[in-house]
Structure formats: structure tokens, C-alpha cells
Amino acid sequence: MSDTTQELAPHGGENSAATTDRFENPGIPPHVPRRADVDPKAAKRAERQVAALFTLSMLGTLGFIAVYFFMEEGQRGWVFWIGEMDVYHLGLGLTLAVSLLGIGLGAGHWAKTLMSDVEVSEERHPQASDDQARLETAQHLSRGYRSAQLNRRPLLLMTAGGALSLFALPLALQVAGGLGPLPGNKLSITNWKKDMRLMIDPSGTPIRPEHVTQGSVFHVMPEGFVGEAAHELDPSVMMTAKAKDSIILVRLDPAKIKSSKQREWGYQGIVAYSKICTHVGCPVALYEQQTHHLLCPCHQSTFDMTDDCKVIFGPAKRPLPQLPITVDGEGYLVAADGFAEPVGPSFWERG
């Protein structure tokens, strides 16, 4: 191996050390004082500017709260360069932007003009947790507190604390308001009532028992909420009905039904269960004919249709509610009554 190759080798004991020794540690460049470091008036001016930015953030947060509570949602207006838009959402966006901008600019200006910018280097050492190390850590924190001038400039501490504290309020309002109102009795009361016909979704065709062959599956809605009749409903009413009234109808071998209640609430082996998963409300629409299991495609909760639709796998915590059914005078399948328990996900208002 030539001498030149040895000098450039990245590994190799003495050769590597010799190569490293050719580069000297440049050290830390000399510190250049800022105007605020040498001029008390400039430092005071910077303090007021930072405090003004934090105050601007607080005003933006208060403006967000005012828009959230006092401006009517859906109110539209003409905005320069944008055109017609929802003024309510524009107000929320602008006030939240001012709140964020005030905190960001204030913190940045504080760091650039008042916090210490002296560069330091520290040799690496093994981590330790003895008393001496803890004392040194406390001293470092104390020096950092003083270098940020928090001990000398309480105005900065108060305005920064106020801006950060108030900024949490819009987030809390968005989380609380975005979740919507509590369900109350909306899941306890569905549109299913006694003698209401079971109609195929989406055609709106009534169903006779002989139409439901062994192993077949029907997706069902209550009469008046599917087919031509649904076109006359308000879209929000229709969507609500879809979310809580959907039924899955299956004919089982009566000999395989384990629950006496399930057998009594069915009709000649035909059983009707809510299609809304009791986990988070996804549609339970996958039926395994050989095992008679119902599978939720969202989180794989699995229900046994031969045993009162009890949960046999997955995150759901309670069985699918059963709708009692019978036939009317014309031989069509109808509800014998409404649901005896709430449909859909479990919730804390459920008794």
C-alpha cells in the first residue's frame, strides 16, 4: 500500500489518528453583542414589542371565542379578492391565525433580541444522576431562566403565559363543539313501530316470508323510509334513518337457533337484527352463510346470529339489538314492536 493511500484511509489506527491531527478544532467564533445586549433602551423596546405580539395573540383568541359564540353559522358575505363565502368560518380562521401568529412572532422576536445567544460547547460525559449532577442541572436551569431575562422582565412572563393559556380555549371549544351534542334518546328511539312493514333497501319492496330463503340476506328499512316514499323526505331525516333504522334480515335453520328469545322474536327461523355495529356504528353487512357469523368490516367485530348476535370477536361490547317481527294480514313481514334497547354504539348516557 502506498504512503498516500495510507494517509487517506478512514480506518487504520495510527494512519487514521495522523489524518485527524491535521485538522484543528476551529473553536467557537467570538460573540457579537446585539443592540439589546448593550443598550437598555433597545432591550426595553424589544420587551414591549414582544409583549405587544403576545397581547395580539390574546386578542385573536378572544376574537375566536366571540365569533364562535356570537356569530351565526352559515352567514355569508362578500370578501375582497375572494368573493362570496361563509363569514363565520372566515372569522374563525382569521382570529385563530392571529392567535397563532402572535405567539410565533413573539417567541421568535424574544429569542432573537433578548434571550442569550452566546454559543457554548460541552464535552460529552457519561450520564449520571448523583447529587452533583442534579445540582449542576438546577444551576443550568437557573442560568437559563436568568438569561431569558424572566427574572428581570415579568411583563414577558405574564403576557406569554396569558397568550399560551388562552390559546388552549379555541382548541377545547373545537373539540367539544366538533363532537356535536350528546345523543340523548335519539339512539333509544328509532322509526320502527308495531305493524310497520319491512321493505327491501333500496327498492322499497315489501317482503313475504317465502321470499327469504335459507342463507339469503336482505338489507331492510322501515316502510316510508325507502323507495319512492323516501324521495319526499328531508335529506337530513333520510340520513338519520339510514344511520339507525337499517336492518339485516336472514333465515336460519330453527334447530340451530340457541336463544329462545331470538326464536320467539323471529318468524319461522327468519330473524331481523340492527345493522349498526355496537362498537362505533359501522354497517355490519358481511354474512358468512356456513358459520352464520356477521362481520363488521371496519374493526372486525364478529357476531353469532345463532346465539342472539352475541359478540364472539372484536372490540364491540354488546350484541346487536334484535327487532321482533311477525306477518300482517296480507302475509308481509312487519315489525311486532320497536327495538327494546338502543341501537348503535354504546355511550355514557345509556342506562
UniProtKB/TrEMBL annotation:
Pfam families: QcrA_N, Rieske. The chain crosses the membrane at residues 50-70, 90-111, 155-173. Its main location: membrane. GO terms for cellular component: plasma membrane. One of its GO terms (molecular function) is oxidoreductase activity, acting on paired donors, with incorporation or reduction of molecular oxygen. PANTHER family: CYTOCHROME B-C1 COMPLEX SUBUNIT RIESKE, MITOCHONDRIAL. This is Cytochrome bc1 complex Rieske iron-sulfur subunit. It comes from Ornithinicoccus hortensis. The lineage of its organism: Bacteria, Bacillati, Actinomycetota, Actinomycetes, Micrococcales.
